[in-house]
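Final paragraph of the annual report: two paired records, presented back to back.
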Amino acid sequence: MKTIRNLATATAIMLGTAGLASAQTLNFAYDADPVSLDPHEQLSGGTLQLSHMVFDPLVRWNKDLGFDGRLAESWDRVDDTTVRFNLRKGVKFHSGDEMKAEDVVYTIERLKNSPDFKGIFSGWASATAVDDYTVEVKTDGPSPLVLHTATYVFPMDKDFYTEGGDEVVKHGNSFASSNVSGTGPFTIAEREQGVKVVFERNPDYWDTNSPGNVQTAVLTPIKEAPTRVAALLAGDVDFIAPVPPTDLERIEADENVNLVTMTGTRIITLQLNQKRHEALADPKVRQAIVHAINNEGIVEKIMKGFGTAAAQQSPEGYVGYNPDLTPRFDVAKAKALMEEAGYADGFEATMMCPNNRYVNDYKICEAAAAMLAKINIKIDLTTMPKAQYWPKFDERAADIMMIGWHADTEDSANFNEFLTMTPNADTGKGQYNSGNYSNAKVDELTMASLTETDPAKRAEMLQEVEKILYDDAAYVPLHWQDLAWAARKGVDIEPVLNVMNFPYLGDLVISE
């Protein structure tokens, strides 16, 4: 408790001084700060949000889910397996070094060796510096997702990192986890983990066309949603995310604040560890669990309607979305399935969930545990901040674990690559499959979809995968989480927001 009080005091001091800042200072609050400054240590929303502030990608998503050139000025498809990226000239890293093709190649090789990112880049057979400003990428077969993948290449300063020590260390203390030299609109002036991160405008930023006028941005992590909302409404911070569903009406009614909402594509799930718990290896037990959890009720009561109950990973509009799959809450059927499986008297299981990563995450887990009690599954639930949760997730430390996922490539196959393919440390596939689910057909179809360029055939493959996962009850689909952000009037957040939830704060304009 002492630690919590100290952090709360530090936050109060930070908020108390926020109002003294100039008009071009942005004080913003997220539910947590990034766990590391290494852009390759953890594949997470927090890491990618940070990357868009202190680095720049080769290309980035726009609001229409198309691609805008960033450090890649243009690109050319040479043949079915070769794409050349033409780099901008004169771009400087924070160290003062000029960004060149060798930095991009270095970054891609580092991504291919990152435990979290290697799965995304496993199809990139090679990256070669043709000259100082041209990088040639070859894939191991025809690929429809080269540009999608290129949005995750944030070129790193090769000389800076190799001199300091460039090892990717999960949850460790490496040079890259606490030092940064990117090309982005901001540098990091100060960082106190769990208390604040201070960003300063990069005076040598290459994008002179950016409308952004924020000179200093101060991130204060505020875990508790009511405290975060109160800070905004009191004028202590200028911008917050996420906005809890319980406060949407309150914020919308405040004339000094703007609320921006967007239908989301992040699936929230519970994974069932088939290797850790014998009962969870039985598909009838997994089916029973899926039938026992009222995900439509969770959306209505806990999420206040701010989400869409799910029966699969792919949201509507994604190529793998299967319209035949629907939520299936049915307690009577769940009890019958438990009896058929020989577990009428139930069993005990452990569950771990974060309490500051997804909207209402721990409340959702509490509700799921109560629902499972109705079919005699007694849950021992532990919740914790995400900084502590992710190492436990990597350990597969509980029988049931929560994971949310936004498809990194805005494509259905990405869900499968990370969440449901057979875990493989060498390839990175199944990196976030804490349930240890394994189905050869799912693996086969997913891999085939990564080289299939016929849209109709890809859709058929990926929709078949969703049906297999549904029938197997490979995991518990809960809902797709909607998105909400709020800012005081004069902080024009709407143009810099997107469905990926990577606010492009380098382009943010504060008008008053």
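The closing record of the year follows.
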Amino acid sequence: MDDPVLLSRLQFAITIMFHYIFPPMTIGLGVVLVALEGLWLKTKNDLYHKQAKFWTRIFGIIFALGVASGIVMEFQFGTNWADYSRCVGDIFGSPLAAEGIFAFFLESGFLAILLFGWDKVGPKMHFLSSCMVALGAHFSAIWIIVANSWMQTPAGYKLVEVNGKIQAHITSFYDVVFNPSTVDRLTHALAGCWLAGTTLVLSVSAWYILKKRFTGGSEKSFKVALVIGLIGVAGMGITGDSSAREVSVHQPAKFAAMEGVMESGAPQDLHLIGWMNPSTHEVTGISIPYLLTLLTHHDLDTSITGMNDIPQDERPPILPVFYSFHLMILIGCALAALFLAGLWGWKRGWLFQKRWLLWCFVFSVLGPQIANQAGWAVAELGRQPWIVYGILRTEHAVSPTLTAAEALSSLGMFFVIYALLLALFLYQITHKIHKGPDQEAGEDDGAGEGKLQVPFVKD
């Protein structure tokens, strides 16, 4: 382990993958909070109020871990990736600054009202705070995705020489923001975030129903999350198709690795499940003839570029991209089937009577987390060997004075810190879930669908 480039890549991968556990949950959970509180204002049913307060406490824990783990990433651009910052800092810094000004301040500014204002502001003002926090979380995702999408499909820039080194300068902020992949990647990422948040609610609610605790409120939260999750599942499929077609145009090497296409031509088969030979990269498994070309180009004649026509030094690592992509697709299909089963059971009246289905929802919380991580691996590994596609190679972006010993020591330090943070997070969230929504004196855990007879006690 004496390569500072590899060690820096490992460090960034660990920190970003750990961080990406939390923001998707806060984005999706923010939408659930808005729905729960809105339904409480509309129906005056205190079960919605109780559930909104409970999930707000969970939101606060997740938000705190997201902030703590996210700070590290920006510091790495100066410590480990100095040449990257010198080359594209003029562009990459702009959306990050916009994220802090327009998103983080909006989200954190109303967060105090959301967490602590239940007995201090009116119901409509508190509902407004829920909306603003959810909106701020979405704005944050927008600017982060803009920055990352520009690295995938650069636009709105020019290359200039400064002090003997090439730098990318903005020529059009509009083109930077709306580069060719921004909209597709943003909508796809947000759909994944909605699923991450809603499956958390579905998992805990299903657990309570199975254990016959807080059943009245849990059933309501379950139905709210199921509706939002169905929107997320539908959005995931639509945006995934659009995003894949965008990749086929602007990043043909990544697309070839995703689909296991080695020889250029048309029509190409779509691999559903398969095993790729590590040496020949031939795929053996279940495939649908011609479907890849049809989905990609909406015809059977347009050729798809194969990996063998990509220069050897511009090819991404094929195996991890191929398997990560198909793992993401497999999980997406499984979640779609689960959500449709839940909808069918709701309409037929047996949703909460099928224990096997509820157990599936209990473990569904893992699905979006794994799929989101796999999707990130596809996006980032598939871009290699470029850190900014077509402009700057990853090996040329590392800080020139960084040593392998320094990179290894910081990698080990972050690993230990993040392990402790993860343990703290799991302890805190498990404690909150075990405690459940606040209990009233004499209230039955299995409260039905009606209104509670006593108001909430103060936190």
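Residues 440-459 have pLDDT under 50 and may be disordered. This concludes the annual technical report; the extension proposal builds directly on these records.
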